[in-house]
Amino acid sequence: MVGNPILDLPIGGAMVPKEEIKRAAMLRIEVMEGFAVPKNTMLQINACGLINSKRNKGDGCTIIGS
Protein backbone atom coordinates (compact mmCIF):
# COMPACT_ATOMS: atom_id res chain seq x y z
CA MET A 1 0.00 0.00 0.00
CA VAL A 2 1.40 3.41 -0.99
CA GLY A 3 1.25 6.19 1.61
CA ASN A 4 0.15 9.75 1.05
CA PRO A 5 3.29 11.93 0.66
CA ILE A 6 1.64 14.91 2.38
CA LEU A 7 0.33 12.93 5.35
CA ASP A 8 3.61 11.07 5.85
CA LEU A 9 5.84 14.16 6.26
CA PRO A 10 7.58 14.64 9.60
CA ILE A 11 6.12 17.41 11.78
CA GLY A 12 8.58 19.12 14.12
CA GLY A 13 10.86 16.11 14.03
CA ALA A 14 8.01 13.64 14.66
CA MET A 15 5.43 11.99 12.46
CA VAL A 16 1.77 12.90 12.90
CA PRO A 17 -0.06 9.57 12.87
CA LYS A 18 -2.61 9.23 10.09
CA GLU A 19 -5.17 8.23 12.71
CA GLU A 20 -4.74 11.62 14.40
CA ILE A 21 -5.18 13.44 11.09
CA LYS A 22 -8.36 11.45 10.38
CA ARG A 23 -9.77 12.22 13.87
CA ALA A 24 -8.95 15.93 13.82
CA ALA A 25 -11.58 18.39 12.67
CA MET A 26 -11.40 19.72 9.10
CA LEU A 27 -11.59 23.50 8.75
CA ARG A 28 -13.29 24.68 5.57
CA ILE A 29 -13.05 28.34 4.51
CA GLU A 30 -14.97 29.74 1.54
CA VAL A 31 -13.20 32.56 -0.32
CA MET A 32 -15.57 35.52 -0.62
CA GLU A 33 -13.29 38.04 -2.36
CA GLY A 34 -9.68 38.65 -3.32
CA PHE A 35 -7.28 38.30 -6.21
CA ALA A 36 -4.99 35.38 -5.33
CA VAL A 37 -7.72 32.72 -5.08
CA PRO A 38 -10.91 32.61 -7.18
CA LYS A 39 -14.17 33.59 -5.46
CA ASN A 40 -16.20 30.64 -4.04
CA THR A 41 -13.08 28.46 -3.71
CA MET A 42 -13.29 26.21 -0.66
CA LEU A 43 -10.01 26.01 1.30
CA GLN A 44 -9.67 22.84 3.40
CA ILE A 45 -7.26 22.70 6.32
CA ASN A 46 -6.51 19.54 8.29
CA ALA A 47 -3.98 18.75 11.03
CA CYS A 48 -1.11 18.92 8.49
CA GLY A 49 -2.12 22.29 7.02
CA LEU A 50 -3.81 23.50 3.84
CA ILE A 51 -4.76 20.60 1.58
CA ASN A 52 -3.33 20.91 -1.97
CA SER A 53 -1.15 23.85 -0.94
CA LYS A 54 1.64 24.88 -3.28
CA ARG A 55 3.77 25.25 -0.13
CA ASN A 56 3.39 21.49 0.38
CA LYS A 57 5.26 21.33 3.71
CA GLY A 58 2.70 19.35 5.71
CA ASP A 59 3.97 20.95 8.91
CA GLY A 60 0.62 22.06 10.30
CA CYS A 61 1.18 25.71 9.39
CA THR A 62 -1.24 27.61 7.17
CA ILE A 63 -0.83 31.30 6.37
CA ILE A 64 -3.84 33.17 5.00
CA GLY A 65 -4.13 36.91 4.54
CA SER A 66 -3.09 39.89 2.54
**Classification by helices and strands:** mainly beta
Beta content comes to 15-25%
Overall number of structural domains = 1
What is the approximate shape?
Answer: elongated
Query: Whole-Å distance between the termini?
Result: 40 Å
Q: How large is the radius of gyration?
A: 13 Å
**How many beta strands in the DSSP annotation?**
5
Poorly predicted runs: none
What about the largest sheet?
A: 3 strands, antiparallel
Mean pLDDT: 79
Share of helix among residues? Answer: under 10%
Number of helices: 1
Describe this structure as you would to a colleague:
It is a single chain. The protein is mostly beta strands and 66 residues long. The chain has one domain (1-66). The protein contains 1 helix and 5 strands. It has one helix spanning 18-23; strands spanning 10-11, 14-15, 27-30, 42-46, 49-50. It is elongated.
